[in-house]
Write a structure and sequence with these properties.
This protein has 8 helices and 17 strands. It is about 25% helix and about 35% strand. Strands 11-14-15-16-17 form a 5-stranded mixed β-sheet. A 4-stranded antiparallel β-sheet has the order 1-2-3-4. It has a 4-stranded antiparallel β-sheet with strand order 5-6-7-8, with no helix packed on it. With about 400 residues, the protein is α+β, with helices and mostly antiparallel strands.
Length: about 400
């Protein structure tokens, strides 16, 4: 029986190898067979979102990843002008369960990602002399030495035991001042409504890839698919943060923030995060302080603080700001409207607290709460949208204050 007849998926073999004559076609067939055997050997060691704790698992995963790299290099040796879409398609032809993606890093160098659920990896295939080869692989980038970026070891076969990553997106970045290629990898740790992710930015000098930044973040399934974008100045990443005083559903948009990382020829700079709903975060901070009986006069007028003290329960025995106190409840609904550039009305419904309508004044980036009204009664509306749609009612702002630029809201 000839080699083609022994293949489990002969159609796939013909699809890749029909145009590869002689020894090259034989090499592709051997790689396909070897990969199938490696995958079958690894299968018993795969858990839902990670690799098991067996001694054999990491070596078997390393072998599978190595064969994917060899397959891509062999494909490029026969298709040196392949497009990135053709490289991705070639990876899928190695095995139906594989997904691939690629970007160009320069002349005859490609960043390639491949993954099967739940494990992913990436590597650089580059031409060395007359042939392509795997010039660098992230699975070999971590040696466990102190000082290496936290999360780098998660890309190793051993790291897949606890922290399996899949590549969500590869993206090119402008080269540095020396002309070295740079790129980012947006990767995902696990499934669920709130998902953990890792952003890493790398520099490729032709011999080695070096991480310039590597940090975890969280996002929700409700976030845009293109949650990571580069605008020519900075990477912008949409993230999900946590409220201080109340719980929220995993897809709650109020907890969304934008994380920015500036990319210049000289390097990368983490610019931090900005809330996409800063007025809601200001109320969260105000509730946090009132519930812990700590000063909040820089955030709100005295009448607002007094009203909140009536409606917010004592959730702490220790008055320390660092004390881990109970949550005030669950965010049920919120809505805001801005009658003018300096004024926002925000309705907040946190169960079991009263539903409140706040007036928030803005001076530059400084927010100050000047008014509050309990709108729990159904006659104000069945939800926050109805409350805001109704004619404005007088709010409790007996002590009207102006924003204090010296004390910005967090």
């Amino acid at each position: 029986m000839n080699r083609i007849a022994r293949l489990a998926v002969p159609g796939l073999f013909v699809c890749l190898c029909a145009a590869i004559p002689g020894r090259a076609g034989d090499q592709a067939a051997r790689l396909q067979e070897d990969y199938r055997a490696a995958k079958e050997a690894l299968r018993p060691h795969l858990e839902e979102v990670s690799l098991d704790d067996s001694a054999e698992g990491p070596a078997l995963l390393d072998r599978e990843w190595e064969l994917i790299g060899d397959w891509v290099a062999e494909y490029l040796n026969q298709h040196s002008e392949a497009s990135i879409d053709e490289i991705a398609a070639a990876i899928a032809r190695l095995n139906p369960g594989l997904k691939g993606s690629a970007i160009r890093l320069g002349n005859k160098a490609y960043l390639v990602a491949a993954q099967t659920v739940p494990l992913g990896t990436f590597f650089i295939a580059a031409q060395a002399g007359p042939k392509f080869q795997v010039a660098w692989h992230v699975k070999d980038a971590s040696d466990g030495e102190p000082g290496e970026p936290e999360g780098l070891s998660h890309w190793t076969p051993r790291g897949a035991r606890c922290c399996a990553l899949s590549v969500g997106r590869l993206g090119p970045l402008p080269p540095d001042a020396k002309g070295n290629a740079r790129f980012y990898v947006d990767a995902v740790y696990s499934n669920g409504s709130t998902r953990r992710a890792q952003l890493s930015i790398w520099q490729w000098d032709g011999d080695d890839a070096t991480p310039l930044l590597m940090k975890p973040y969280a996002f929700t399934v409700a976030a845009p698919d293109a949650r990571t974008t580069f605008d020519g100045d900075a990477l912008r990443i949409r993230t999900k943060e946590n409220f201080k005083t109340f719980a929220a559903s995993p897809d709650e948009s109020g907890a969304a923030a934008e994380w920015s990382v500036r990319v210049t020829p000289q390097g990368v700079t983490d610019l931090g995060k900005r809330w996409l709903a800063p007025e809601l975060i200001a109320i969260d901070e105000l509730d946090y302080r009132v519930s812990r009986q700590t000063p909040a006069e820089d955030l709100a007028a005295p009448a607002v603080i007094a009203e909140l003290k009536e409606g917010i329960p004592d959730v702490c025995d220790n008055r320390s700001m660092k004390n881990e106190c109970a949550s005030l409840g669950t965010l049920v609904d919120w809505k805001s409207s801005s009658p003018g550039p300096e004024r926002t009305r925000l309705c907040l419904d946190v169960d079991p607290l009263p539903r409140y309508l706040f007036t928030i004044m803005r001076s530059g980036t400084v927010l100050f709460v000047t008014g509050i009204k309990d709108v729990s009664d159904p006659h104000y509306g069945e939800n926050c949208a109805a409350v805001l749609a109704a004619p404005a009612a007088p709010e409790n702002q007996a002590t009207e204050s102006s924003p204090d630029p010296a004390h910005p809201a967090p």
